[in-house]
Amino acid sequence: MINELYFYGKIIAFLLKGNVVRPEIIQRDYDKLSRTYDDYFSRYVGKYSRELVRRLELAPGSKVVDLACGTGTLSLAIAESVGEKGKVTGVDRSQGMLAVAEKKCRARGFSNTTFVEADIRDVFTGFEDNSLDAVTCGWAIGYVNPQDLVSAAARKIRNGGKIGLIENVRDTLAPIRKTAVKVAQELPRHFNQLMDLHFRLPKDSGDIKSLFMGADLQVLDSWEGDEKFEFRSGEEVLNWVLHTGASAGFDTVMDRAAKKECDELFVRLIEKDFLRDGRIVVTHKFAAGIAQKEE
Ligand SMILES: C[S@@+](CC[C@H](N)C(=O)[O-])C[C@H]1O[C@@H](n2cnc3c(N)ncnc32)[C@H](O)[C@@H]1O
What spacing in Å lies between the alpha carbon of 218 and ligand 1's midpoint? Predict the structure, then answer.
């Protein structure tokens, strides 16, 4: 009870002081994660990102901006669809992620990709209004104000141009999120900062449609999906979380000096609450959608 009061008291204090994980921390974490990101994340969910690109039905020669391109899963699929006469500009704030994307493009011999290190909130100043055929954003609208981003992208696409989004939904990876909150509740003295990421995630594909409609776009398609991950122990879950974008920024939430204690508690709690018949099932849930600017 005392721990709980201390925990909620800290949340109020952090909110009042604006003590929230800063974007630079998330960027730094993605630099570190870039080496393992494809093996632990893209390998499983890359197929859903590629499906988004397929459903966009981009014409050869299209000019596309891929926001928060990371290691380039969407950018590479787009480069393939738009062909040599097309152009893909991948934008991301993490040098590490961009370096992996560039390396993969070189290995595949693409000459129609450019990667730019920038914040996705600022990048549109470099493009004329109504100049792009499409804009995509995979697994990253939750890092910014999603409506502002979609509205800015809508101004840059031509009439008939498209926007494609895919994003985790709010109750994705529920066992991991619930356990992380419990760790902070049980060890409030090590709880340092807030992270407000999941409040900006869409609840479902209806929220993606609302984002499009909020930018006066016509919704062409929307869908939801999930991928189940099975782990045999809490250690396995922790290892997975620490190698995917799922932990980006989270390391700072808890005191780094107490990392071992927090990690051990995470493993113990997730096994107590979610280990059933020798496995912990964690479901990655997402929503996606495509919209068009009226012709
Ligand atoms: C989960 S990864 C998604 C990467 C890629 N789109 C994919 O499909 O795998 C999130 C990416 O968003 C980037 N990111 C987060 N906030 C950003 C911002 N404000 N500006 C630019 N990149 C950002 C991170 O650096 C990271 O590469």
Answer: 25
CA dihedral 139, 145, 151, 153 (to 10 degrees): -40
Q: Give the H or E element holding residue 262.
A: helix 259-274
pLDDT digits (tens, 9 = 90+) for 10-27: 778 777 777 777 777 788
d(CA 115, CA 109): 15
Ligand 1 centre to CA of 140 (Å) is 5
pTM of the model: 0.92
Look up the CATH number of the domain holding residue 133: 3.40.50.150
**d(C-alpha 285, C-alpha 224), whole Å:** 8
Kindly list the protein residues whose Cβ atom lies closer than 6 A to any atom of ligand 1: 23, 26-27, 30, 42, 49, 68-71, 73-74, 92-94, 97, 119-121, 138-140, 143-144, 245
Tell me the residue range of the domain where 91 lies: 2-292
- What is the total count of domains within the chain? 1
Please check whether residue 112 is in contact with residue 80, taking contact to mean a CB–CB distance below 8 angstroms.
no
